[in-house]
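Researcher: Following up on the earlier apo prediction. This time include the ligand. It's pyridoxal-5'-phosphate, with the SMILES given after the sequence.
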Amino acid sequence: MPRFDAHPESRPQTRFETRAVHAGREDFARLCVHAPPLDLSTTYPVADLDAGTASFDALVAGQAQAANPIYARLHNPTVARTEAALAQLEGTQACVAFGSGMAALTAVLLERRQHGAHVLVVRPLYGTADHLLASGLCGLEAEFVEAEQIGARLRADTALIVIETPANPTLDLVDIRAVVAAAAAVPVLVDSTFATPLLQSPAELGASYVLHSATKFLGGHGDVIAGVVCCDEARAQPLRTVRAATGALLHPLAAYLLHRGLPTLALRVERAQANAQTLAERLARHPAVKRVHYPGLGTVRNAHLLSSQMRGPGCLIAFELHGGHGAAAAAMAAVRLITPAVSLGSVDTLIQHPAGLTHRVVSEADRRANGITPGLLRLSAGIEHAEDLWADLAQALDRAMAATPERAEAA
Ligand SMILES: *Cc1c(COP(=O)(O)O)cnc(C)c1O
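Model: Understood. Below is the ligand-bound prediction.
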């Protein structure tokens, strides 16, 4: 039985970069392998019925593993190995993996719905997360508030607080410690996708759930859709029960690819972040650009939190063009090296238009109220050479200016 056994007590204390390389691989010497075993079984033989029943009961109750995985919707050893690695990187007892970031958020909402019907949410956040919460699809009534209002808006039936920091797409920062303090006993979920576990550790600051769209930096190569929730074991168990009941699984091949991306996470993020800083500085001086949002320039809401809750400004930049929607569309059409596409956190640089794409599902009034303007573009820096990226971006911005001369002057 290919069970994963990390023996955490026997591991030496290591730093993030080292853990990223070795996490979830602790049993390789014993197994005599050098790459993770990929287990694609959907079912597992049950020769001893009583032992099988005990395993079934344990997995349905949300145990991390059992003597027999029984059925792949209940447990998969390759997925469990990736989860163990991510828990180590996020500094939590457990990690529960899902088929996407949205499936991960849905599982937390469904679980919390059993504790109350009210959820407090700080905007902006990922467009589809905003839509899922605003729609009430999971049976929770979402109330959108400023972070500073949380204490005053708590109700007896408040089951969860949802924040995203840095926020998508404006890169605003939210004070995790202050939100946790205001939340009292209500659990706080932090979507930490933009920060990655390298740059921010929300659980250390008191967050109960740390959510990542692992589709982004964790996978890192644009070929895996995945979501994870890192939390303590007591909170992980009911999430596994929801996962088994709803089937929002991460496929083992996706888990394998996700695990494969982790050893280079620190290298990728450091390089992409250095590129982002360079591009942000140059964007701020380009005549086509009205405003740059980047924590490393201090030009986002609560930029002071960069030094107190993050270990770096990250790899995402948002910037607004003088020429509005027309200029943004022209810039997206003009890039030759940078990929005009949604998503982020890949090795290649991506640029997209939040109002027209990722945040399309948010109402126009809410978009405008949260700084998602027609001229706003979001760039996810990749690991290419900074000079090549700037050359491409600068020529695209020059073309955007040429395409919208009258609006550029008006703005
Ligand atoms: C992409 C994203 C999500 C959703 O994740 P999927 O894997 O696409 O389902 C959630 N939050 C943030 C911040 C994201 O960028």
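Model: Residues 316 and 380 are 5 Å apart (CA to CA).
Researcher: Noted. I'll compare it with the apo version next.
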